[in-house]
Amino acid sequence: MPTHRDFSEIVQTEYDVAIIGGGMIGTGVARDAAMRGLKIVLLEKEDFCYGTSGRSSRMIHGGLRYLANFDLGLVREGLREREILLSLAPHLVHPLKFLIPLYGGLLNKMKLKIGMVLYDLLSYDKSLPNHKFLNKAQVLETEPGLAKNGLKGAYVYYDSQIALTERLCMENVVSALSHGALLLNHAKVVGLVKENDAVSGVKVEDKLSGKTALFRSKLVVNVGGP
Questions:
Q1: Mean pLDDT over each residue of the chain, to the nearest integer
Q2: Residue 134 falls within a domain, yes or no?
Q3: Residue 14 maps to a domain
Q4: Shared domain check, 96 and 77
Q5: Which of 72, 121, 195, 217 has the most CB within a 10 Å radius?
């Protein structure tokens, strides 16, 4: 962005949605909302994909570990979103196979088995293979470096991974722009605009010029990260 950019014209518009945060979720919301015909402005205080999205594990997963807390709704949501990303961005999101070695007694095997079955059931509409069990010999053939003592076998299941989160984030940016959204980086939200005890926009500092401006919107979505 040039240092002489001028907010004076774009602030005259009342936006349907103002989005705080230009990471994976923010740009995804901007793209989705713009494709639905809404007038969108997104504001990112650094550069797109600067924060958590650029420092993540780069896993696209359904949250297998959340099954231990019986948070089935969250797992189902994650698995559904995983499948959407596999469908929308197969050039960036790829299947990834996991092998969980099984040590210990029958109880540990039962817990893992229940988790694997639930993960498959909750991802009933997936394109990835279901889990499978490998006996000790099959495991050691696959991973000969594993400790042999106490090894009972292993479960194999699939999730997905994205090597370049920045690419997917920027593709969201490009798609949102092509559908009429306004996305501004180096634009820091420094406050909320309130009228009659309701949020009606955001106060923004242009980090390139130091000037501030008010962006009015019917709804403000804060996905600025943790």
A1: 93
A2: yes
A3: yes
A4: yes
A5: 217
Total domain count, the chain? 2
Q: Give, to the nearest 10 degrees, the angle between helix 24-35 and helix 165-178.
A: 30
In this structure, the answer to whether residues 72 and 154 fall within a common structural domain is yes
Torsion of CA 104, 68, 225, 42, to 10 degrees: 120
Give the pLDDT band (50/70/90) at residue 178: very high
* 89's tokens: 């961005």
Torsion angle of C-alpha atoms 119, 59, 165, 25, degrees rounded to 10: 50
pTM: 0.85
Residue 123, domain extent: 59-162
SS3 47: coil
**Partners of 95 in the beta sheet?**
160
Distance separating alpha carbons of residues 102 and 187, to the nearest angstrom: 50
Q: For 154-177, what is each residue's pLDDT tens digit?
A: 999 999 999 999 999 999 999 999
DSSP at 186: S
Both 158 and 109 in a single domain?
yes
